[in-house]
Amino acid sequence: MYRVSRHSDFGTPHGRPARPISRAYGAGARKGRTRLDQGQPTTTSLAMASSVAGPSTPTATAPTKSKRRQNPNNVIYANPLPLIIETRPPAPYTLGLLPFPRTKIINPECSGIYDALTRSVWIVGKRDVRVLWERGFFGKGSLSRSEPSWLTRKVQQLNGGEVLTAEEVTARRREQRKQFKVSRAAAIQKAAQEAEAAFSASLESPATTFELPLVNTPHNVPRPTFEPAASKGGTAGRPPPTEAKADKAANSEEEVEKQLREQPELLDEDQVENMEHLQLTLQEAFFLAWGLGCLRVLDRDSGQYLNLPALWSLCLTSSSSPVPTLSPTPAECRRPDNPFLIHYVAYHHFRSLGWVVRGGIKFCVDYLLYKRGPVFTHAEFAIVLCPEYDDPSDGSSSPFAFQKEPFTWTWFSTINRVNAQVKKTLVLAYVTIPAMSAVGERELGSPECLRMYSVREVVVRRFVPARMRD
Amino acid sequence: MDDALSIPKHSLHSDALPAVGGDPETPAEAEAGDSDSGEEDTPDWTRFAPPPAPSGPSSASGAAGRKQFHVIPQRGEKEFEPSRAGAGETALQAYALQRARAAMLRALRPERGSSSKGITWGVWQPREGTVRVPHPRGQAFTTMGHFLPSSPHGGGGGGGAANASSAGRREARTDPRAVGTERERERQLLLLPEEALYLIERGSMFCTHELADPPPSARDPHTLASEQEEEEEEEARWDESAPPAVVPMSVQQAFGALLGRSGLTLERYQVYAHLRRLGYTVTRACAPEGPLFPRAPARPAPSASLPQRLWSSVRRWAARLRPPGARRDWWAPLRPGWAGRRWTAQRLFAALRLVPSGHALPLHSASPATTPEAGAGATAADTSPYEVFYHVWRPSTPWKKTAVPPPDFHLIVLNANTTRVPTLAELARVFSQLPVQPPPAPRKRPNAPPPAPAPAPPPTILTRLRRLLGLAPAPTAGMQQTAHRTPPFVALKAGRKTVVLAVVDGGSVSLVRFSQGVFEDWPMV
C-alpha cells in the first residue's frame, strides 16, 4: 500500500520496465508530425500493447484520459532520470503534526563494463538497458540507430512478421523516396521529349505559335506511388506460418496433425541471443555514476567495480594516446583543458537543466538538446562547444589536439546552414577553462574542479533583411 | 531540401505560360517559404522585357492589360544539364537559352536616366570628408544627412579660417533672405561618404569636387570690385535652376575619392548599400562630428543604487563564508536527504546544477586587455574589429532626425577573410554596450479573449520595505498585464541581448544574429 502512489512526480513507480519498442514506434514513429493513429494499429502491435497496458499501467486510476495520456510513449518514458522519487504518506507516529509526505529515491543500481578500446561503458544486462534507455535516453544501441532494438528486429525477421522499429520505418521511407525520384525523373524526361517534338513541329510550320512550357508543372510530376518491393530475406530461417496454414487445408487429417506438430513455433526474444549492448559515452557514464549514483562500472582487467575516484582518473586518462610514446601520456592528462572535462562540463550543465543531451555528430555539432527525448520531438538546439582559455598561454603548452582558436567564418556558415536545413537552432556554448595556475592537483583529483569552469551560451540565427522588414 | 514528396514551389503558383515576346499576364509568384531562397533570388529578365509594339498580335494579355509589378519576379528552376548525354543541348534548350539571354540584354540595354527635377547636386569636401548638399531633393534625405551645429558667436566677417567647417561655427539663420553667403552654407546638409556614394550610385545625386568650386571667402576679398558684385556672383552660383558649370564626378571617381574616408571601407559600404536598397534606415553608431548628428537616445547607465550594492556585497561575503558542517562532499553531489526533506523533480535537478553559467558571471581572464569594461584605454579594444558600426531601423519604424527611436538592430561589419568567429572576450565587450531586450510577447491567438490583467496582490510590509530601500522595483503597469507567459523555446531563441554581424566575403553579405543565451533562466524541468 505504500509502494503505489498516484502523486509521485516521476510518474510510474513500477520497478519492472515495460516491454520494448515496437508498439512505441508504431505509435510514435512520426515524431509529432502526425498524430498517433489509434484506430489502425497492426495486429501484432495491438496484441502486445494490450498485454503491456494491462497489469502495469498506473494511469488506469486517472479518471480522465487526455490526449497526452493516450500516447503510450508518455507512459513508457515518463521518468526523466533513472532515479525515481517515491512519496509515501507521513509516518503514523507523527500523529498528523507533520503533514508532509516522505519521499524516497529509488535507485535502480545498474552496472556496466568499461571497454578500453572504444573508451566507452557497455551495458549488457537486459533490465539495465531498458532502465537506462527509458529513463533519460542514455546511450546508444551498438547495432541500432539509437534505441537498442536489434533483438526485436532479429526475432521479427526470423518470424517473418512485419517489423515496425525505427530502422525499418526509415528504410521503407527511403525506398519510397527512391522510387518517387525514379518515376519523377522519367516523367520529366518524357515531358522534355514532348516539348522537343512540339518545338520542332512549330519550327517546321511557323504559323503555329509556340509557347515555352514549364517542365516541372504539377501535371507533369506524377503523384508518388509506392509499389512495395518483394520482401527480401523474410523467410531466411523458417517458413512463415501462413504457408503452413495454406498447406493444411489440402491434406487429410493425419497429415494435418503431423504438420501441426511440425509447425515451427514462433521465436521469443529469450531464445535468441542478443548480440547488442547499450553503449554509453564516458560523459554519460560518469554522470550516471557520480551525478546520480545509479551506475557501477566494472573494470575487465581487475574484475572489480571501480570506485568513483578510480573512475574519475580513468575518464581523465581516456584522452591519452594508446601508444605510450605519443602524447598525451596519461601523466599529462591531468590538465584543466582535458577534452573529457570540457565535454563533461557542458553535458552536466545541460542535463542539470532538464534537457536530454545526445550526440550531434549527424549534424556537424557536438550535442543535440531534446526537450523530452528523441521519441517525442526532434531536437531543438544544436550545441557547438567553443573552449576558451582563461590564461592564453595554457593553449600553447597543451598536448591535446582540439581546436583552440575560433572557427573561420566559412566553417561557421557551413554548420549554420546544415542546422538551418534541419530546422535546429545553433547555439555556441563557450566553455571557459580555468588557468593552470588556479587549479591545483587537489582540485583536479576530484570533480570539485567543475565549479571553476563556466558555460555561456550564444544563440545564432540568420538575419534575413528581406523578410524582417516589419 | 531533399523532400521527395514536395513539388517545386514556383510551379504551384504560375498559372499561365509566358508567351514569346509578349508581356506577361500573371503577377509574380509568391516567394518561396524556404528561408534560404530569399537571398539567392535573381530576377526573371523575361518579365522585365518591354512590351512589344502595338502591332504585335501575339500578346496574350487581352483585357488584363499591363500590370505593375510590385515584387521582383522570381526565376524558375533551370535545367542544369543537357538532355542528350554527350550530344550537347537540344534545339529547345538552345532556343530557351537564347530567349533568356536576349531578354536580359534587352532589359539592361536602355540607358538609365533620372528626371532633372529629382537630381541633387552636392559638393565633395575632401578636407572634411563629407559631401555638402545645398538643396536636397527627394525622399531619401529624410533619413540621410546631418547638419553642423550653429555657433553662439556673432556671424559675419571675412578672413580667418576660411573653410566651410569653420563657417559653420558662425551663427546661422540670422538673415533668411541672405542667399549665397557663408550663412547659407552653414545650413546645408552634410552627407557621410557612404550616404553620398549610395546616392551617386543610384543616380539621384551628382557630386562635384570642391576644388572646382572654392568657397568665396577663400578668395581675397580685396581683389573683388565691390561687395555687390560678390553677392551677385554668389547668387548666380547658388541658383537652383542652373546647375554648376562643372563636370560632376563619375561613379568611379566617387568610389576612389570617398572610400577610405571617415572610416568607410568597401565592406561597410556594401552592407550599407545592401540594407538601404531593402528600405532600412542605417546611420552610424559613432557620430563623426557634432551633436546634431541624428543619433539614438543614450541609454541610462545601469548603475546600482547604494542599497543594492551593499546588499550584493553582503551576499558575496556570506557566500564565501561556509558553515563547516555543510561542506559539500564532491564525491556525492546528491547528498542523502535528512529526514523530512522532500525530494521533487525540480529539487533533484537543482541539486545537480553545479556548473556556473550565464553571461552575468565575470570573466576570469588573466590578460588585462580582454576585460570587458576596459574602456577606451585598452589597445585591444581599439584594434578589435568587433565594434558596433551601424544602427539599423526597420522600414516600418517611424524615423525622424529630430526624434530618433532606439535602434532596432546594432550592426557590426566584418571581413570574412581577416576575422574569425568572435571569442568570448570580444563578445562580452560588445554585449556590455547593448541594451537588454524584453522577451518577445506571446503570440496572440485570434480566438482567445484578451487576458484579463492579473490583479496585483497588495504589497506586503516586506515588499514595501524593500521598495523603500531600493532593492525591489516599483510596480509598473506592464508587469501586471501579461497573463500569458512567453513560450520557452521562443524566449530561448530570442535571448537577452542581440547583435547583428554582417560578414562580407568578397561582396556577398551574410547577416547573422548573435544573442546572449538564457538557458539557465528557462530550465526544462
Automatic annotation (TrEMBL), chain A:
<feature type="region of interest" description="Disordered">
    <location>
        <begin position="214"/>
        <end position="268"/>
    </location>
</feature>
<keyword id="KW-0456">Lyase</keyword>
<dbReference type="GO" id="GO:0000213">
    <property type="term" value="F:tRNA-intron lyase activity"/>
</dbReference>
<feature type="compositionally biased region" description="Polar residues">
    <location>
        <begin position="37"/>
        <end position="48"/>
    </location>
</feature>
<dbReference type="GO" id="GO:0005737">
    <property type="term" value="C:cytoplasm"/>
</dbReference>
<dbReference type="GO" id="GO:0000214">
    <property type="term" value="C:tRNA-intron endonuclease complex"/>
</dbReference>
<feature type="active site">
    <location>
        <position position="424"/>
    </location>
</feature>
<dbReference type="InterPro" id="IPR036167">
    <property type="entry name" value="tRNA_intron_Endo_cat-like_sf"/>
</dbReference>
<comment type="function">
    <text>Constitutes one of the two catalytic subunit of the tRNA-splicing endonuclease complex, a complex responsible for identification and cleavage of the splice sites in pre-tRNA. It cleaves pre-tRNA at the 5'- and 3'-splice sites to release the intron. The products are an intron and two tRNA half-molecules bearing 2',3'-cyclic phosphate and 5'-OH termini. There are no conserved sequences at the splice sites, but the intron is invariably located at the same site in the gene, placing the splice sites an invariant distance from the constant structural features of the tRNA body.</text>
</comment>
<dbReference type="GO" id="GO:0000379">
    <property type="term" value="P:tRNA-type intron splice site recognition and cleavage"/>
</dbReference>
<keyword id="KW-0819">tRNA processing</keyword>
<feature type="active site">
    <location>
        <position position="378"/>
    </location>
</feature>
<feature type="active site">
    <location>
        <position position="370"/>
    </location>
</feature>
<feature type="domain" description="tRNA intron endonuclease catalytic">
    <location>
        <begin position="340"/>
        <end position="431"/>
    </location>
</feature>
<feature type="region of interest" description="Disordered">
    <location>
        <begin position="1"/>
        <end position="74"/>
    </location>
</feature>
<dbReference type="InterPro" id="IPR016589">
    <property type="entry name" value="tRNA_splic_SEN2"/>
</dbReference>
<protein>
    <recommendedName>
        <fullName>tRNA-splicing endonuclease subunit Sen2</fullName>
        <ecNumber>4.6.1.16</ecNumber>
    </recommendedName>
</protein>
<dbReference type="Pfam" id="PF01974">
    <property type="entry name" value="tRNA_int_endo"/>
</dbReference>
<dbReference type="GO" id="GO:0003676">
    <property type="term" value="F:nucleic acid binding"/>
</dbReference>
<feature type="compositionally biased region" description="Basic and acidic residues">
    <location>
        <begin position="244"/>
        <end position="264"/>
    </location>
</feature>
<dbReference type="InterPro" id="IPR011856">
    <property type="entry name" value="tRNA_endonuc-like_dom_sf"/>
</dbReference>
<dbReference type="InterPro" id="IPR006676">
    <property type="entry name" value="tRNA_splic"/>
</dbReference>
From TrEMBL, chain B:
<feature type="compositionally biased region" description="Pro residues">
    <location>
        <begin position="436"/>
        <end position="458"/>
    </location>
</feature>
<dbReference type="GO" id="GO:0000379">
    <property type="term" value="P:tRNA-type intron splice site recognition and cleavage"/>
</dbReference>
<feature type="region of interest" description="Disordered">
    <location>
        <begin position="1"/>
        <end position="67"/>
    </location>
</feature>
<comment type="similarity">
    <text>Belongs to the SEN54 family.</text>
</comment>
<feature type="domain" description="tRNA-splicing endonuclease subunit Sen54 N-terminal">
    <location>
        <begin position="106"/>
        <end position="208"/>
    </location>
</feature>
<dbReference type="InterPro" id="IPR024337">
    <property type="entry name" value="tRNA_splic_suSen54"/>
</dbReference>
<keyword id="KW-0819">tRNA processing</keyword>
<dbReference type="InterPro" id="IPR024336">
    <property type="entry name" value="tRNA_splic_suSen54_N"/>
</dbReference>
<feature type="compositionally biased region" description="Low complexity">
    <location>
        <begin position="56"/>
        <end position="65"/>
    </location>
</feature>
<feature type="region of interest" description="Disordered">
    <location>
        <begin position="149"/>
        <end position="184"/>
    </location>
</feature>
<feature type="compositionally biased region" description="Acidic residues">
    <location>
        <begin position="26"/>
        <end position="43"/>
    </location>
</feature>
<feature type="compositionally biased region" description="Basic and acidic residues">
    <location>
        <begin position="168"/>
        <end position="184"/>
    </location>
</feature>
<protein>
    <recommendedName>
        <fullName>tRNA-splicing endonuclease subunit Sen54 N-terminal domain-containing protein</fullName>
    </recommendedName>
</protein>
<feature type="compositionally biased region" description="Acidic residues">
    <location>
        <begin position="227"/>
        <end position="237"/>
    </location>
</feature>
<dbReference type="Pfam" id="PF12928">
    <property type="entry name" value="tRNA_int_end_N2"/>
</dbReference>
<feature type="region of interest" description="Disordered">
    <location>
        <begin position="435"/>
        <end position="458"/>
    </location>
</feature>
<feature type="region of interest" description="Disordered">
    <location>
        <begin position="212"/>
        <end position="243"/>
    </location>
</feature>
<dbReference type="GO" id="GO:0000214">
    <property type="term" value="C:tRNA-intron endonuclease complex"/>
</dbReference>
